[in-house]
Backbone:
């Protein structure tokens, strides 16, 4: 049987396990086009455990139109890779699956030009796989003709849930994991956190980060919406939950909008940019019983978010597209 062509920008470390799980279910060739690293991670050209090629974005159209593939899957990445993959698949009468990540379209002039072409793809893809319910809800406003599947965002559960060596640096420890960029809300968190409580994890090895999760009381994900950014998910949430650490997230975080962070169940959700609300949420997390209950609930909730579940959903989307 012919392979599936899967077009995306990179195979960062946090995606390798999911891509491997998909390649174990189907014959897949991953076309890694490179490009933007804004949402974390980077690609590798080394020993990936699945077939990968590194075409230019323009070459994607020729690949998708070649007739060598049983289906084409493409994510929303690159300047022309997605429309190239879609056009090529249509030229070859090959089933096309959109891997959708957006839950609001960016509001820059450049993105305004892409809105109508992308809406066309939403409406005419043979199937769509999304990051979660928040993305599915947005996709359905575009009136897609194909079925919509949710492929849960996942990390390597075996690694992130493994026993760690807690790295504790404060009596009550807040953790910020990621780039202290403006859209990540770091300035807001600095205003809300009490002096001496905040630890910033940047440029850490996975083992070091796991130890910081284990040593912290709360992970804070204070992302802000901007004209060109809305946190698609936030895999640091999954990582922390596997260690039983609750999360305070803003309503601009995909993992909150998508239902993994549930207010007063697995964490707390606050309005983006609201310093007093974030300060109050932090104060609530000082209650040991409350915090431990949230952490236990978080660890139970994230158990369903596996790389195998992501691969299963992608298989269902591909098979549904082929049946159209």
Residues:
């Amino acid at each position: 049987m012919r392979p599936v062509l899967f077009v995306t920008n990179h195979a960062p470390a946090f995606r390798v396990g999911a891509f491997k799980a998909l390649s174990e279910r189907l014959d897949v060739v991953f076309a890694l086009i490179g490009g933007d690293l804004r949402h974390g991670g980077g690609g590798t050209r080394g020993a990936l455990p699945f077939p990968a090629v590194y075409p230019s974005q323009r070459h994607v159209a020729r690949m998708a139109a070649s007739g060598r593939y049983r289906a084409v899957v493409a994510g929303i990445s690159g300047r022309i890779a997605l429309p190239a993959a879609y056009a090529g698949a249509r030229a070859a009468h090959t089933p096309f699956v959109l891997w959708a990540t957006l839950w609001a379209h960016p509001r820059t002039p450049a993105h305004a030009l892409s809105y109508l072409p992308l809406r066309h793809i939403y409406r005419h893809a043979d199937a769509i796989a999304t990051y979660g319910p928040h993305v599915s809800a947005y996709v359905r406003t575009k009136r897609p003709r194909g079925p919509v599947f949710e492929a849960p965002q996942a990390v390597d559960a075996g690694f992130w849930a493994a026993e760690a060596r807690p790295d504790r640096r404060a009596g009550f420890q807040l953790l910020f994991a990621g780039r202290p960029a403006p859209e990540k809300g770091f300035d807001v968190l600095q205003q809300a956190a009490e002096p001496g409580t905040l630890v910033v994890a940047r440029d850490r090895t996975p083992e070091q980060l796991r130890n910081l999760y284990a040593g912290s009381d709360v992970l804070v994900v204070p992302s802000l919406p901007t004209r060109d950014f809305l946190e698609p998910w936030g895999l640091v949430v999954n990582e922390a939950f596997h260690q039983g650490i609750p999360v305070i997230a803003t309503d601009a975080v995909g993992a909150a909008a998508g239902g993994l962070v549930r207010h007063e169940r697995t964490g707390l959700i606050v309005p983006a940019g609201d310093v007093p609300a974030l300060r109050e949420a932090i104060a609530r997390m000082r209650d040991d019983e409350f915090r431990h209950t949230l952490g236990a609930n978080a660890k139970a909730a994230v158990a369903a978010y596996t790389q195998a579940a992501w691969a299963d959903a992608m298989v269902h989307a591909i098979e549904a597209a082929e049946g159209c």
Observations:
- The CA atoms of residues 119 and 142 lie 6 Å apart.
- The first strand starts at residue 4 and ends at 8.
- The chain has two domains: 4-154+306-322, 157-302.
- The domain at 157-302 is CATH 3.40.50.2000 (Rossmann fold).
